[in-house]
Amino acid sequence: MRAGEELPPLEIPITRTLIVAGAIASRDYQDVHHDAESARQKGSPDIFMNILTTNGLVGRYITDHFGPAAVLRKVAIRLGAPNYPGDTMVLTGTVEEVDGDTATVRVVGANGIGSHVTGTVTVTVPSGTVSSGAVSSGAVSSGPVPSGGA
Prior knowledge:
By secondary structure, the chain is α+β, with helices and mostly antiparallel strands. The chain has three helices and five strands, in the order βαααββββ.
């Protein structure tokens, strides 16, 4: 773990199932996350991912990289371009700062229309447990996002 280290990109297919399951798992029943007609009536071309699902995916990206002993200390993200079904979000990260066993990682999640999420994650990794790329990059399951975590 060192400043300047780049995490491998992670591609996440954005499916209707992922959007709806993430909203249900986070108990976000706003119609724009599950009802396409309601979303269109409110000015959106389709349903879109909620911030809690995005937050969970960002946390997963970090813990997949640093391993199961990694502890998320702070997740500070901001949403930009919506994640719509049929797109792919690519998460990338760069370690900005390291202080002992704690790192601050700049994360960006981009989709076909721009940056969906930007922010930083502070993570603590006990000495000797950094897996540095524990999970290879590539497409991931579009199933539900586990609850809890970030």
